[in-house]
Design goal:
432 residues; alpha+beta; Rossmann fold; Dna Ligase, domain 1; D-amino Acid Aminotransferase, Chain A, domain 1; 4 domains; 5-stranded parallel β-sheet; 5-stranded antiparallel β-sheet; 14 helices; 22 strands; globular; binds adenosine monophosphate; binds glycine
Length: 432
């Protein structure tokens, strides 16, 4: 069977790499892929996946039929939110990834907040505003710290955590008046600021059955010690000791099951990956956000540890037979460190040559996934903010992290940087 993976990030590289190892997987195509995915399969740059139209869906369908592709895996949120899964399914293709109505869980935070409220799913208290003056009046009068969120999709950057009313006022202005995130800021959510450790819980959902993957922890802020603005994710490791079996059961019962049930009550079927971003507060786990796809970078260390046949697993999701699936995991810890372009998450240059990739790839238990890269002859150049995702396995988190950092030290590009402290939140806690 041949598979098409839509997207160009480290997540898609890792998914394609894992799919390629599946018993029945012959060829993997990536649209558009990146400077590393062509080692696993074939990059297809003739398909327009940047917008979802009748024409673009028909072109994907035609390509799939020409190339005997029997499964399309949609990696990123934008095409899901724009209904690509719906269109391809209608054309008769098998698609891994939720339909547009289900993807609204991620694409419209006002919708997901209302759903959580309706189903009594634990989350931060919040209010939604469509009018900047009303939002400003609210934050001016508010005494406790708030978080201001653009309701729409903003590549993980549309959330501003504030310390004071002045910062909250600035945040509302940035989103609603200066339109820093475009129409994603038509509505804002203003919510109470929670404290605690954050974890990412990803679950496969086949419409009815839920299969929870191993828990992971992402690092959203750009700077070491969790400082600076939010990014798409600077590094992640799995499993995290923050979620034991008992807590996982609580999360399953209080969050995952009621989320899928609430959608079903509205006639919406969720198929794909449901990702709950949770804060472990003193009052229990609370949902910060939902995503409707694999987390990036959480996916990369998960794929390195997953022992099952990913193609079979994905087909079970599409066919509604997830109850027959059981997944084994490498018992070691996998840690992923993200190497970024200088300036990210703000402006950055592209087209800078990357050195040291081949040497680093020779290290034991190190896996290099490309994100924002492209090939130019036999050179690899930077082509995005998050450039490379270096995953390493270790007997524990400290060893995995050290290995990943050592590999990063062998790779260089002008201005490039990464966080050396992935996992510190639990390593430091353990040291205390
Ligand atoms: P989100 O995209 O909604 O997950 O938000 C991005 C990041 O902002 C989260 O990973 C948290 O670090 C932070 N954040 C979001 N909501 C809150 C909240 N209510 N309280 C504290 N931090 C938050
Ligand atoms: N790592 C966070 C995300 O994928 O949204």
């Amino acid at each position: 069977m041949n598979v098409l993976v839509i997207g160009s990030g480290g997540r898609e590289h890792a998914l394609g790499w894992k799919l390629k190892q599946s018993k029945n997987c012959k060829r993997v195509f990536f649209a558009p892929g990146n400077g590393g995915t062509d080692r696993v399969g074939t990059n297809v740059t003739t398909l327009d996946v940047s917008q979802v139209t009748t024409k673009s869906a028909e072109a994907i369908d035609y390509f799939c039929r020409q190339n005997k592709i029997e499964l399309v895996v949609i990696g990123p949120e934008d095409p899901l939110a724009n209904g690509l899964a719906d269109r391809l399914t209608k054309l008769g293709l098998k698609v891994f990834g939720p339909n547009q109505a289900a993807a609204a869980l991620e694409a419209d935070k006002a919708f997901s907040k209302a759903l959580m409220r309706g189903a009594a799913i634990p989350t931060a208290e919040s209010r939604t505003f469509e009018n900047a003056d009303a939002a400003l009046a609210y934050v001016e009068a508010h005494e406790t710290p708030v978080v201001v969120k653009a309701a729409g999709l903003a590549k993980g950057k549309g959330v501003i955590v504030t310390d004071s009313a002045d910062e909250a006022i600035d945040a509302v202005k940035q989103i609603m008046v200066d339109r820093a995130f475009g129409e994603a800021g038509d509505k804002v959510i203003i919510e109470e600021r929670l404290t605690g450790q954050e974890v990412s819980i990803l679950a496969l959902v086949d419409g009815r059955n839920i299969y929870v993957l191993e828990p992971s922890q992402d690092h959203k802020q750009v700077g070491e010690g969790d400082t600076g603005p939010n990014t798409g994710g600077m590094g992640a490791y799995t499993p995290t000791p923050l979620v034991d079996d008992k807590l996982m059961q609580v999360i399953d019962r209080q969050v995952l099951v009621p989320t899928i049930d609430a959608l079903r009550r509205d006639g919406v079927e969720f198929k794909g990956v449901l990702y709950a971003g949770l804060m472990l507060t003193p009052g229990g786990p609370k949902v910060l956000e939902y995503n409707c796809r694999f987390g990036d970078p959480e996916c990369q260390p998960l794929m390195v540890r997953m022992k099952g046949d990913l193609l079979e697993i994905m087909l079970a999701v599409v066919d509604g037979t997830l109850d027959k699936v059981d997944i084994d995991w490498d018992r070691r810890v996998a840690c992923c460190v993200v190497m970024c372009s200088g300036g990210y998450p703000g402006d950055y240059e592209k087209g800078i040559e990357i050195n040291g990739l081949d040497e680093a790839a020779k290290l034991d238990d190190v896996f290099i996934f490309h994100a924002g890269t492209k090939k130019s002859g036999d050179k690899v150049l930077t082509n995005g903010g998050r450039v490379l995702n270096i995953v390493a396995l270790g007997k524990d988190l400290a060893e995995a992290r050290d290995r990943a950092n050592a590999a990063c030290d062998m790779i260089s590009f002008e201005g490039g940087f990464f966080r050396r402290d992935i996992g510190d939140r639990v390593l430091k806690k353990a040291a205390k």
